[in-house]
Design goal:
The protein is of the alpha/beta class. It has 2 domains: about 10-225, no CATH class; about 230-285, no CATH class. About 50% of the residues lie in helices and about 15% in strands. It has 10 helices and 9 strands. It has helices at about 10-20, 75-100, 140-155, 160-170, 180-190, 195-210, 215-225, 230-255, 265-270, 275-285; strands spanning about 35-40, 45, 50-55, 55-60, 65-70, 105-110, 120-125, 125-130, 130-135. The strands form 3 sheets. It has a 5-stranded mixed sheet. It has a two-stranded antiparallel sheet with strand order 2-3. Helix 3 packs across helix 4, helix 5 runs antiparallel to helix 6 and helix 9 packs across helix 10 (about 275-285). The protein is elongated and about 95 Å long. The N and C termini lie far apart (about 70 Å).
């Protein structure tokens, strides 16, 4: 994970994720018993050893307990739970050293569609580590994607649950491979008109797919995110100006053809609608 996305170094994404998850219930994961999320926490915590480990996502909940949210695509349950035990020790040690507190920790593991069953406990004598499994193999990613796509393309606002589901779509069952689904989902997120929601979703997808996403594609997405709103608006205005210039050119061509071709043929050749050509003919008294 050393080459993954560090949200200490990505302040925009970290802030966006914090806003996305703040005050969210975790019902979309089937986690009905947990308190709402208070805030997203930095997910890197140094140990006495020289290396540095980090969980996928770390939350502070409303009751001041900690939620450790992990994404896995394998069934190495023993190795993974040993990893979570290490994370839990580092979290407990950090809070106790800084605040003299022992905070309760909840461990939730979201398994990608490849995993169809999961062990939720590792017993080692007096030591027991437990987790809650969320199996995304039980979700139809294509159906969820198309339902949300229809709302986005119709400029309808997404509910909190739909926003969370869109983030997880690339990890659900799909007829497409994972990288293709990641790209389809991020490109769909770019169509969201509300800019904060747009960035929330993209940040969430990058976090959820950090272990699986193609690094070159990540670079492209990060470059896109770096574009300021002003630059994006300028690019959009430039595209609109080009389209308007093309439209005016088509109109001039249509005017010149009105004396020699029928209206439907002019529409076919210029890309204008029959109604637009007919209006031009009226204006010119043809």
């Amino acid at each position: 994970m050393a080459g993954g996305i560090s949200y200490h170094a990505k302040d925009v994404l970290f802030k966006s994720l914090s806003e996305l998850y703040q005050n969210q219930a975790l019902d979309v994961y089937g986690l009905h018993g947990l308190p709402k999320i208070k805030t997203l926490l930095p997910n890197e915590y140094p140990a006495v050893r020289a290396d540095e480990k980090r969980s996928d996502t770390l939350f502070l909940l409303e009751d001041d307990s900690i939620l450790l949210l992990e994404y896995e695509s394998n069934q190495r349950f023993i190795e993974n739970h040993l990893k979570y035990l290490d994370y839990a020790y580092r979290i407990l040690h950090t809070y106790y050293r800084q605040q003299k507190q022992i905070r309760p920790i909840h461990i939730v593991v979201i398994y990608t569609s490849e995993v169809t069953s999961a062990h939720e406990q590792l017993h080692a004598g007096d030591v027991l580590i437990s987790s809650k499994a969320v199996l995304l193999c039980e979700y139809n990613g294509d159906a969820i994607f198309h339902a949300i796509e229809e709302k986005i393309l119709n400029n309808e606002p997404l509910t909190a649950e739909e926003t969370m589901k869109l983030i997880l779509v690339p990890l659900m069952n799909s007829r497409f491979d994972r990288q293709t689904m990641i790209e389809k989902t991020i490109e769909l997120a770019k169509e969201i008109r509300d800019e904060p929601t747009q960035l929330h979703v993209i940040a969430g997808i990058l976090t959820a797919t950090d272990k699986f996403i193609d690094e070159e594609y990540v670079k492209k997405v990060k470059e896109w995110i770096k574009m300021t709103k002003v630059i994006r608006l300028f690019e959009q205005e430039k595209e609109e100006a080009v389209k308007e210039a093309e439209k005016q050119k088509a109109i001039e061509i249509a005017k010149n053809l009105l004396d020699v071709l029928p209206i439907h043929e002019i529409a076919k050749r210029t890309g204008l609608t029959v109604a637009e050509v007919a209006d031009l003919a009226k204006e010119m008294g043809k």
